[in-house]
Amino acid sequence: MTWSFENDTSIVEKKLAGRSMKADRRRSVFIILTIALAVCLMGSLCFLYSARQMKTLDGILGQYQAGCSGLTREEAVRLVDAGKFEKWGCTVETGTARHEDSVLNVSYVSPEMIDLMGYGEITGAYPQKENELCVERSFFRYFGLSGEVGQTVDLDLGTGEKTYTVTGILETENDSRIFTVWIPEAAVEADGHNAPCELRFRFAGSQGMEPARLRADIEQFFSEMGIPEDRTFYSSNYFGMVDLYLGNGMEVYAAALLIAVVCAIVIYNIFYISVMGKMRE
Predict the structure, then answer these.
(1) CB 131 within 8 A of CB 138
(2) What is the pLDDT of residues 123-179, one digit of tens each?
(3) Which of 14, 58, 191, 252 is 20 to 30 A off residue 87, Cα-Cα?
(4) Is residue 104 domain-shared with residue 193, that is, in the same domain?
(5) pLDDT tens-place string over residues 47-56
(6) Are residues 192 and 87 in the same domain?
(7) Which sign does the torsion angle of CA 139, 143, 148, 149 carry?
(8) d(C-alpha 256, C-alpha 45), whole Å
(9) Is residue 113 located within the same domain as residue 30?
(10) Mutual orientation of helices 250-280 and 10-61 as an angle, nearest 10°?
(11) Taking Cα atoms as reference points, which of 119, 79, 94, 109 lies closest to residue 204?
(12) Domain total for the chain?
């Protein structure tokens, strides 16, 4: 009821109340959007972090785990024939050679070792015949050669100067004057190289295995095969990093969960305060 001497302010009150509610809604929407954006940002960061972690972990788990050096061909074959390896590869270092003012590291590297160690892509094919070889691309750049598969080069790799056909080019970056030259297994056998063989491998069934247990199993395998401890070695990159990456990241996920909980509490309090304020009005 409005007395005759009173002003009717109901219209003004309704307008003010409407404006207040609109302002509250705008403020609430703005705060909610801000919090939602923060949650989405944190979720995106967690996703990117997880993806990066998984990529790095996959790279570590794909590497070799252990190996042994100073092996004869018979010993290497015996180890491989035991059937304990998921992946394996071998190398035979035949020595170094001089070519003008550069040094050539000459070796036989099995195709399996190239894949296991991630030595890089080869343009062309790995050499198969005695007069074939694979050389780093930087070798051709350094000596101003064309760098094409199929060309011939004259090199002395320790058995006198011969003409070799380049069947493959190793696509790696190298700013030094020390170049990698890979020769086929046939050349190692024909030239009578008595250099020992080095074997590296990934143990079969090691996926998801604890590093300590895996190392113990590999040590037991070496012992059973009669390989002395001083001729064995383990990948420090694999055993040193896999524990770190398998256990890392929990702090980030915990922080993301905490932020989500805090945001939920803030949103709840905004609505609660707004409702209680309207009830008091």
Answers:
(1) no
(2) 999 999 989 999 999 999 999 888 889 999 999 988 888 999 999 999 888 888 899
(3) 191
(4) yes
(5) 666 666 565 5
(6) yes
(7) negative
(8) 9
(9) no
(10) 170
(11) 79
(12) 2
